[in-house]
Design goal:
The protein has 229 residues and is of the alpha+beta class. Helix content is 37%, strand content 32%. It is built from seven helices and six strands, in the order αββββααβααβαα. Strands 1, 2, 3, 4, 5 and 6 form a six-stranded antiparallel sheet that branches. The longest helix has 38 residues. The chain is globular and about 70 Å long. The chain starts with a helix and ends in an 8-residue tail after the last helix.
Length: 229
């Protein structure tokens, strides 16, 4: 009888956990649909763009990963996407049981009219440590305030100095919040820990502001592929 009771309790816990998870998922999707409508965007619970295949270091993390809850549309003059991104690290214990640790993010992406080396910019956290995992040293700038607050990783330091000028530093110090940025080729990512749907318009504004602060010299020194020199 004791074994039956234990099995019953386990089954109830599993079913209860599934029901709660399902309700949370449905509630988030409903809220995201409303946010998409307020922005004039479209929404899909799945990823119709294979966003996870974009060349960002964040999207290569872990033993498994995925993108869901994608919103897309035009903001100002930018074609943008907002999405939920997750990855997991898998470990095996001494008994051979596998365990997954999930990491969840809210992301905003767009493209830039240039083609640049990779760079990661953000306050020291799991995202900025990606550059260290790739063997890139933290790049130092003349501003000690900025150096204390941010980590900049790039395999091409000259490009980092072109991208992070005084105006960009001021923006990052004043308005970037907890976001981390990656720019690779023509793709720009703004990522932060998973946020509520109501906070996604704020994430979008940070992405737009970063794009607006890209120095003009970047456009001229790193022209988009196919453009005239």
């Amino acid at each position: 009888m004791g074994v039956v009771v234990v099995v019953f309790v386990v089954v109830v816990a599993i079913v209860g956990g599934y029901v709660i998870s399902r309700r949370i998922t449905q509630k988030r999707r409903a809220a995201l649909t409303a946010v998409a409508g307020s922005l004039g965007f479209r929404y899909s619970p799945d990823d119709p763009f294979d966003t996870v295949d974009l060349p960002f270091a964040l999207f290569k993390r872990g033993d498994g990963r995925g993108v869901e809850n994608v919103l897309w549309g035009i903001a100002g003059n930018l074609a943008v996407r907002l999405c939920d991104y997750w990855y997991y690290d898998q470990t095996t214990d001494s008994n051979g049981s596998r365990h997954r640790t999930y990491h969840r993010f809210s992301c905003a992406t767009t493209s830039i009219d240039a083609y640049v080396p990779g760079i990661t910019v953000g306050r020291e956290n799991v995202l900025t440590r990606l550059g260290g995992a790739l063997g890139f040293d933290d790049i130092e700038f003349e501003s000690e305030e900025f150096n204390r607050a941010f980590r900049v990783k790039s395999g091409t330091p000259k490009f980092a100095y072109d991208m992070i000028d005084a105006r960009m530093m001021a923006f990052l110090l004043d308005a970037s919040s907890g976001c981390t940025f990656e720019v690779v080729g023509s793709d720009l990512l703004c990522a932060t820990g998973r946020v509520r749907p109501a906070d996604l318009p704020g994430l979008l504004k940070v992405l737009q502001s970063f794009h607006a602060h890209v120095p003009k010299v970047v456009w001229s020194l790193y022209p988009a592929r196919g453009s005239s020199p």
